[in-house]
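Side project, low priority. Logging it here so it doesn't get lost.
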Amino acid sequence: MIKYSIILKTDKNMSDADIQIAKIFGIKDSKKLPAVSVQSLTTYYHFLHKQFVFPIQALYAQDIEPFKTTRWGIQVLGLLDVDASDNIEFYGLFCEAKRGRQLIQIPLADIEVSDKSSNYTLINDYQIWFENNR
């Protein structure tokens, strides 16, 4: 269940995702969403850490050569601390996942979850913000 504790008056033209993302940062206007930075990623990390229900069944798409991509079924086990991630402003938040018996660390922005997943909206909103604000 997604809990947003801040109630804000928002622009009627904002999408549902923009409204929810603005609430995470405690702002009223999606035009003022913060750029991707260590600070904004830390804020998003703390929000997601409290909201996610693990494990998360997902797909991870990996480019194996030009114009060829392979998708792997994975099970996301948790988020990595912001401090543990290299190039966080470029890749965003990382998660730890299992692919078969192998543990992997991958960007949260690169996973796909079913729209039936209880974590779908959380992940989709994060990916929208990350892609549009870096």
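Brief comment: The mean pLDDT is 88.
Revisit when time allows.
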